[in-house]
Amino acid sequence: MDTALRQGPAAGTERPAEWSEYDDPETGATVTRLTDTADSGNWHLYFTENGWDDGGRRLLIQSDRMGSRQLHSVDLETGEITQLTDLPHPIDGVTRAGERALFWCGDRLAVLELDSLRVRELYERPEGYGGSHTAGTADGERVVVAIAAETEFNREFENRGAWIKARMDANPHSQIISVPIAGGEPTVHVEDERWLNHVNASPTRPDLVTYCEEGPWEAVDRIRVLDLASGEQWRARPTDEGEAVGHEYWLADGEHVGYHGWRGTRDEPDPFFGRVRYDGTDRREWPAPDLYTHVHSNGPERVVCDGTHRGAPFDLLWERREEDGGDGGSEEYAGPWKLAHHGWESDDDAHPHSRLSPDDSQVVFDASEDDADAGSDVYLVEVPDDVTELPRFDLEGFEPATDR
């Protein structure tokens, strides 16, 4: 393998704080805008990934402020921003795995030591293949990804949904592979002539990952679990006719998988969010505002949702109902409440990809302030001690706009 991947001189550069604080004009929640750059983009890690680092003192973000998307961290005590990578290609598919970050840089799978900023190459994709989001196993020993053959058409379709369906119908050759982080040859765990994507690793069980059969959600049985040790694989949340689920993620216990979806059709959906144990048991589901959203929770106590670009441009929050004399909670939720406005009003805007902090006290999200063409920035909102003081969202009376 060519080992030409090297850090440039900007790695380790510290830049002054850009942050500003305000109270959300409708909810009163305290919001901190962590980044503020004109004509460039800043994004927190994808909502499936825990970007809090250094015991919660820092937050990993991506930014193309220097002309190429690279990894940075924001000091949450001072606001200072440190550039962590200065690599020859934009990075993507970032996950944090202990004191390391894993990502793609061009066609190279790489690991970054967050303390020394040393970069090592682990694997090079075959020519003509793309790679999924990276996932680090709970024991810190392996990185797991999906690779899939590129198709002859590009994304120049009427809309993203049409492109996704066309790529699914092309049945690209795909593999789920794992690569030792210490170095070594890859292991092929799954190989198929269908589009495989989105690998997520259990944060507590080193042998378990999820991956998805990619495509329009109503056309696939999406959420798959793979046991890396045995090779066994199964569906965590099978879907019947008229059901669709996706945007899966692991809860902090490493036992349960969260998701959202809908029953019915895209035009007349009955949306919901839910969680299920990795073996398909303990499945529970609750109403959601729309099918176009993302949902995250660390455990059963609190849930955050993006709202929807079809008429609810704010983060929504649910809390588990307390039981008198019980074990401190039930399987029903109170809420939702409006937490913070993010202005997601078009699919072209930055998607919030809202995620709760590990202690459930904050929510991070991305937003385009006024103009999606001007890029996006990263925001952090404090969850108030008493969420019942937030304004309620009328979930039962909400009807998503159909013209967006």
UniProtKB/TrEMBL annotation:
Region (Disordered): 1-25, 344-377
InterPro entries given in the database record: Ogl_dom, WD40/YVTN_repeat-like_dom_sf
Pfam families: Pectate_lyase22
GO function terms (MF aspect): lyase activity
Protein name: Oligogalacturonate lyase family protein
Entry keyword Lyase: yes
Lineage per the UniProt record: Archaea, Methanobacteriati, Methanobacteriota, Stenosarchaea group, Halobacteria
Transmembrane segments: none
Start-end of Basic and acidic residues biased regions: 344-358
Domain Oligogalacturonate lyase: 12-261
Keyword set, alphabetical order: Lyase
